[in-house]
Sequence to fold (128 residues):
Amino acid sequence: MLDPNFSIRDAARYAERQMADELPGWRVAWWQYAGDGRFVVKGAVSTRYRTRGPRKGQPHWPAQADPTWREVSIMNEDVVAMLVEEEAKSGKCAHCKGSGQQWAGSDTQTQGCLRCKATGVAPGARTT
Ligand SMILES: [Zn+2]
Fold:
């Protein structure tokens, strides 16, 4: 079972991938777990990025009236399917992205990944 803390970030990534053809550069600004196996994400195309401060590299979001704002609904199982596919391709644990560490309350706190037992290797991955 995949940790929802990671699934939300992965859901954002999934949405960005889905939108890439229609709106290149579209990024997720806001997301929410809808509670019924579904995520709702909202994003837009940002053309300006912060150049300084603690949020350096983060987008300056366009005004609400900007036509690139879209709300996208994503099924949890589609995100999981993407992760399973990536895991099969890379052999890295989809939960920790191969780092062996998982989120433990904040961006600076981590603990050994429970899914791969902190090895970073996808459980069941074939090692050739
Ligand atoms: Zn892991």
Observations:
- Residues 92-128 form one domain.
